[in-house]
Specification:
binds S-adenosylmethionine, seven-stranded mixed beta sheet, Rossmann fold, 25% helix
Length: 178
């Protein structure tokens, strides 16, 4: 059976993802919930006092803890208070249906949401594992109707650009409650 563990390969995006995320979020949050933190690749962008990582896949949760032993990680959906400031979705919402995202946002009601992923329905694939629901920016404007898009940025992703034979960008979107 396909597992998330097999689908998180370090890939050469051509830039330093931790540095780019740190610069994008500088001064934009007090606490962060790294929703779907995977193996804790990005954890050290944040101070441990400000950070909770949530990962529902056991293998990945264990890897995150081993890689970042002084940080807090949960294997169950954390209480709402853990995600009420900034909820980070780093290539996670792209794997979730609108229904699933709405459920998460109802639970945490975060002041801010940071989404990092490849935008554009042209990249959406049908079936297979993991599911991929790349959205257009307008899809997110509709889905996140309680939020304003306050900051955005994009970086060319070398690995996917080579694979697809055309420029593919990783988009960084910051949303704030209206
Ligand atoms: C591509 S990985 C990204 C992991 C991490 N954010 C990173 O950038 O290294 C996608 C993650 O989303 C999580 N995920 C996928 N669907 C989810 C859902 N419906 N609810 C919670 N987590 C989910 C998976 O367990 C996986 O860790």
């Amino acid at each position: 059976m396909a597992k998330w563990e097999d689908n998180i390969a370090p890939c050469d995006c051509g830039y330093n993802e931790n540095k780019e995320l740190a610069l994008f979020l500088m001064g934009q949050y007090e606490k962060v919930l790294d929703f779907g933190c995977g193996p804790g690749r990005l954890t050290q962008v944040f101070d441990k006092e400000d950070y909770v990582g949530y990962e529902r896949e056991l293998d990945l949760w264990n890897r995150a803890k081993v890689k970042n032993p002084t940080y807090l990680f949960s294997n169950e959906l954390p209480p709402a208070g853990c995600g009420d400031d900034l909820l980070l979705s780093y290539t996670v919402f792209v794997h979730m249906t609108d229904f699933e995202i709405k459920h998460v946002l109802r639970h945490f009601n975060p002041k801010r949401i940071c989404i990092v992923e490849i935008l554009g329905r042209q990249w959406r694939t049908r079936g297979g594992f993991p599911p991929v629901y790349n959205r257009d920016p307008l899809d997110y404007v509709k889905l996140l109707s309680k939020y304003n898009l306050t900051k955005q940025h994009k970086m060319k992703h070398e690995h996917y650009s080579k694979k697809k034979g055309r420029d593919v960008f990783m988009s960084y979107l910051l949303w704030e409650l209206k």
